[in-house]
Design a protein that fits this description.
about 15% helix; alpha+beta; about 220 residues; 12-stranded mixed sheet; globular; about 45% strand; 3 helices
């Protein structure tokens, strides 16, 4: 009898532990892009030619596939197990790749504060103060708005130093619902217009076997 009671108690504990495990977000975020000039004569078309006016961000198990439309940059694919980005542009069929083991800028400081809701989800914002490597200026800012409603495991980004993914995803533990890049003369904004959980095949986050690869 005691053995049976112990077995039942152990099963209940295991069930309770499993119920506390967070489920990672898998799905799509649709973004609209906006460039806000801070100086009168800035030509926003320069940015739109590079990043377009809309993009689709697919996420599964720390793999990210970002597709941008009517722009110079067509795809940014981050493959987590390789800790590597693959870039495709409108000017070449070559897929360029970059290992993410080193910082590409200095993170001077970062902080998290409360922010207004986005698409009905309660949000915070992570703000990073940045400067170039081995230089004091120009100082820029990046802001990542996020909600606890879309959990992702931050440990999977721990070794991704490029673009400060280790800090960004490590602090957010979520996907970005809005991103702001603030420069001296403009602010570039990606804001979610739709978030759709969906099943995604792991092969979706692979480079085609016959792709021509260039190394940066």
């Amino acid at each position: 009898m005691k053995k049976a009671l112990f077995t039942i108690f152990a099963i209940l504990l295991l069930t309770a532990a499993k119920s506390q495990v967070k489920t990672e977000f898998i799905g799509l975020v649709k973004y609209t892009h906006n460039v806000i000039p801070k100086v009168k004569d800035y030509d926003v078309n320069y940015d739109y030619s590079g990043i377009g006016k809309s993009s689709d961000y697919y996420f599964k198990d720390a793999n990210i596939k970002w597709l941008t439309y009517e722009s110079y940059f067509k795809m940014d694919l981050f493959i987590a197990k390789e800790n590597r980005d693959y870039f495709l542009t409108a000017k070449s069929d070559t897929v360029f790749t970059l290992k993410n083991t080193n910082r590409d800028f200095d993170v001077v400081d970062y902080k998290i504060t409360a922010a207004a809701p986005i698409l009905g989800h309660k949000c915070n914002v992570l703000e990073l103060k940045l400067k170039p490597l081995d230089a004091d200026s120009p100082v820029t800012f990046r802001r990542y708005y996020f909600s606890d409603d879309f959990y992702i495991d931050p440990k999977k980004f721990a070794n991704c130093k490029s673009s400060a993914y280790d800090i960004i995803y490590g602090q957010m533990k979520s996907i970005p619902l809005k991103i702001e890049f603030e420069f001296e003369n403009r602010i570039v904004v990606w804001e979610a217009s739709e978030v759709t959980p969906m099943k995604l095949d792991s092969h979706f986050f692979e480079i085609e076997k016959n792709a021509v690869i260039g190394y940066w």
